[in-house]
Amino acid sequence: MIIQTLHSVNFSKKPRKNSDIKLIVIHYTGMQSRIESIKRLLNPKHKVSTHYLIDRKGQILKMVDDNKIAWHAGKSKWKNYINLNKYSIGIELVNKGHEFGYEKFTIAQVNKLIKLCKNLKKKYKIKNSNVVGHSDIAPLRKKDPGEKFPWQKLQKNKIGIWYKKLQPKSLNLNDKKIKKLFFANIFKIGYRYFDKNRRSKKDIFLIEAFQRRFLPNKVTGKIDEKTFKISDFLANHIKN
Fold it and tell me: Which domain, by its residues, includes 18?
C-alpha cells in the first residue's frame, strides 16, 4: 500500500506510546476540494490536523505520525475515554460534506480505507467497537462521516460493528420504557453526552447519530422499533 507523506505542523509535540492508541476515528473533510482540505490541515492558524487523509482517487497522505497526537477529534467521548485525540488515529476522507454538497464515498477511497484500517487495527490491537465516526464521539456537534458512509461494508471486512438479522417479533413496551432501554443500550455500546436516567432535548442528537450510522435511510431522531432492536442487538452482541 503506497502512502505519501505531507506533514502537518498541527500536533502535540510530546509523543505517545503505541499502547495509548485505542481507537480509529473516521471523518469527512467537509470542504469544497482536496486542495482546500489539505491547506486547512497544514495551516497552523486553524489548529486542526489528521494522521491520514484519503482523497477521492484513493491516494493516502500521511500528515501526522501515529506516535504523535493529531488534532482531529476535539471535545469528544467514547466509552470511558474523554477528549479522544490522545487515544485515537484520525482518518479524513475527502468529501464536501453536508454543508457543501454531500457525496457518496468512492470505491477507491473506501477500499484504501479498509486496507489502512486493517493495518492499524492489527498494529495497535484496536477493537472493532472502537472504530468509530466523528458523530459517534461528538454527537451534539458533528455529522461526519454521515449517512452515506458504508459502515456495513467495513464490518464485512472485519472493521467496526454492525448488526445481523433482527427478530421480527413486535415489542410490547411503552414509549418511556423503550427510551430508557435504548439509552442504556447505546451507553453500553459506547455513546456518551446524555444521562441514562433523565431525558433531555439534546437526546435527539444522540438518536440521530446512532441512526446515521446504523439506520442511514431513516434518520428521524425518533426511537422506532427497528432503531431500538438494532441498539439491543449491538448492546448484547458486541465485544467491548
Answer: 3-156
Percent of the chain beyond pLDDT 70?
100
Q: How many Cα atoms are found within 13 Å in the side-chain-facing hemisphere of 99? A: 9
Q: What is the pTM of this model?
A: 0.97
The catalytic site residues sit at 92
Q: Residue 229's Cα: distance from chain center in Å?
A: 21
Residues 205, 103 share a domain? no
Residues 144 and 228 in one domain: no
C-alpha cell at 134: 466523528
3-state helix, strand, coil in the chain (%, to 5): 40, 15, 50
Q: Which of 156, 191, 222 is the last residue of a domain?
A: 156
23-28 and 88-93 beta bridge pairing:
parallel
Question: Which pLDDT tens digit goes with each residue over 42-99?
Answer: 999 999 999 999 999 999 999 999 999 999 999 999 999 999 999 999 999 999 999 9
**Helix (H/G/I), strand (E/B), else coil: 156:** helix
Cis peptide before 139 (omega within 30 of 0): no
Task: Based on the fold, state whether residues 117 and 225 are members of the same structural domain.
Answer: no
Domain of residue 120, CATH code: 3.40.80.10
Residue with cell 450510522: 213
Query: How does pLDDT run across 230-239, given as a tens digit for each residue?
Result: 999 999 998 8
DSSP 78: E
Backbone dihedral region for residue 58 (phi beyond 0: left; psi -120 to 50: alpha; all else: beta): left
User: How far apart are the C-alpha atoms of 113 and 116, rounded to whole Å?
Assistant: 5
How many domains does the chain fold into?
2
The label of the residue with cell 469527512 reads 28
